[in-house]
Design brief:
Blueprint (H helix, E strand, L loop, with lengths): L1 E7 L4 H17 L3 E7 L8 H4 L4 E5 L8 H9 L6 E6 L2 E2 L2 H13 L2 E4 L5 E4 L1 H8 L6 H8 L16 E5 L6 E5 H6 L13 H11 L3 E4 L7 E3 L16 H13 L2 H8 L3
Parallel strand pairs: 1-2, 1-4, 2-3, 6-10, 7-11
Antiparallel strand pairs: 4-9, 5-11, 6-9, 7-8
Helix pairs in contact: 8-9
Length: 267
């Protein structure tokens, strides 16, 4: 059994649609799972598609006006009761091949697994509305997305009418491992607010604290990202708190291991 922990903000119809597609997709890929949706809004009414399933539980945390995915993930981690946990962005999907291999690797080893090969494909709104919203979830959905990709031209920034290659060395969006491994490093760093460096920090910290990390690379190795705003791929450095996040990342990387062990106890 695996628990998918998803941090979710209810700030647009697009996010509701994405969350519905993503939960349906992963439920179709593996039956031995449940979902813990950490909603960043203490007054949010549970959508019908969540309340209609026994394997989806919504947990609410107070919204302080900031996007705090790391704090949300930690709220979820504290409630996980399964051997495996996957921290999943509310707008990302991977293939069945990669999910199966990620689960197997997580169970058979003590490695924390990035559930794809580092390549993140940002889909356009037209693809999402024209394909993702009309297809059945599961690997049919992934394969139809994958058929649009020019696999001979995977370069950061490559753009066509269907997608943009956002990154080829990404580490966020789908992170899985044994629950006790994440608890041993005290989860995610809640000092990261908004976008920027929170995923890089936890990977760096895992490795420094003795946790092995690997990327999963099957025959269908990509991560697809659904749009949820006017320009999902815009430069995140313009976002509020991006500079502060870089400073936090730099500060943590500069700590020796003894100081780092003490620092994570303060979260």
């Amino acid at each position: 059994m695996i628990t998918f922990v998803i941090h979710y903000r209810h700030d647009s119809a697009a996010r509701v649609e994405n969350l519905s597609v993503v939960t349906s997709h992963f439920r179709a890929l593996t039956q031995d799972c449940k979902f813990l949706i950490v909603v960043d809004d203490d007054k949010f009414e549970v959508p019908e598609f969540i309340s209609g399933y026994d394997d989806i539980v919504a947990v609410f945390m107070e919204n302080d006006g900031d996007y705090n995915k790391c704090r949300g993930y930690n709220v979820g981690l504290s409630r996980v009761d399964t051997e495996l946990v996957c921290f999943l962005d509310a707008d990302c999907i991977i293939s069945k091949e990669n999910l199966d291999l990620t689960i197997k690797t997580s169970l058979d080893t003590n490695m924390i697994c990035i559930g794809y090969n580092g390549t993140c494909i940002y889909l356009t709104e037209s693809v999402k509305s024209g394909i993702a919203s009309t297809l059945k979830p599961g690997d049919t959905l992934y394969c139809n997305m994958d058929s649009l990709v020019s696999h001979d031209n995977i370069q950061i920034g490559y753009t066509n009418k269907h997608y943009t290659v956002g990154n080829t060395r990404a580490v966020g969006g789908c992170l899985m491992g044994k629950t006790n491994l994440f608890r041993a490093i005290n989860g995610f760093n809640p000092n990261f607010i908004g976008w920027g460096y929170e995923d890089n920090e936890i990977i760096s910290r895992c490795e420094r604290l003795g946790q092995q990390v690997c990327c999963i690379n099957s025959i269908k190795p990509l991560l697809f990202h659904f749009p949820h705003e006017e320009d999902t791929t815009r430069d995140k450095s313009v976002h509020p708190n991006y500079k502060n996040n870089l400073e936090e990342f730099t500060k943590v990387k500069a700590m020796n291991n003894e100081k780092l062990q003490e620092y994570i106890k303060t979260w």
